[in-house]
Design goal:
There is one protein chain. By secondary structure, the chain is an alpha+beta fold. The protein has two domains: 79 residues, RimP-like superfamily, N-terminal (GMP Synthetase, Chain A, domain 3); 59 residues, SH3 type barrels (Roll). The chain is built from three helices and eight strands; from the N terminus they run αββαβαβββββ. A five-stranded antiparallel beta sheet has the order 7-6-5-4-8. A three-stranded mixed beta sheet has the order 1-2-3, with helices on one face. The longest helix is centred in the first third of the chain and has 17 residues. About 7% of the residues have low confidence.
Length: 175
């Protein structure tokens, strides 16, 4: 796909995505046999996409693509998706959505840093790195990704049902 086609596709999808309070993160087009796979990556301003929202975005982009000549006459499969849990942090809004999350930062110079994002601004973020607040300037970051965290089952307080049926609730007849 040429750069002009990618730009045209992005310009068709961006207003649709924006009208649904989302950001267009990426558009990827790959040839898959006789068809093209069109993957549109979107993120919601609040940080989460619902299935209904993804379906709405998909319907609208599909409609616009069917009416346009951007992809020519070749058939395509449209996939609308979120950036995923291990999303790269490339823009200030990505960092803002990662507040509270564990991230791995590879600076342009120096060793990688792993820490929890405490706050994020337009030019930098503050991380908690082993109890120490560390400021990371976005301009000094070669790569940054949100880490997938798994909590061990022993660390989670489970609300297990009482095997005898005594759940410590008051009988409504006892008042």
């Amino acid at each position: 796909m040429s750069a002009s086609q990618a730009k045209a596709l992005r310009s068709l999808a961006e207003p649709i995505v924006a009208s649904m309070d989302c950001d267009l993160e990426d558009v990827v087009i790959r040839q898959a046999g006789k068809r093209r796979l069109v993957r549109v990556v979107v993120d919601h301003h609040s940080g989460g996409l619902t299935l209904d929202l993804v379906a709405s975005i998909s319907r609208e982009i599909s409609r616009v693509l069917d009416e346009s000549t951007v992809l020519g006459n070749s058939p395509f499969v449209l996939e609308v998706t979120s950036p995923g849990v291990d999303r790269p942090l490339r823009l200030p809004r990505h960092w803002s959505r990662a507040v509270g999350r564990l991230v791995l930062v590879t600076p342009t110079v120096g060793e990688p840093i792993e820490g929890r994002v405490l706050q994020a601004g337009d030019a930098d973020a503050v991380l908690d790195v082993e109890g120490t607040e560390t400021t990371v300037r976005y301009a000094d970051v070669a790569r940054a990704v949100v880490q997938v965290e798994f909590t061990r089952i022993e660390e989670v307080e489970l609300d297990e049902p009482d095997p005898e049926g005594d759940d410590d609730t008051t009988d409504p007849e006892e008042g």
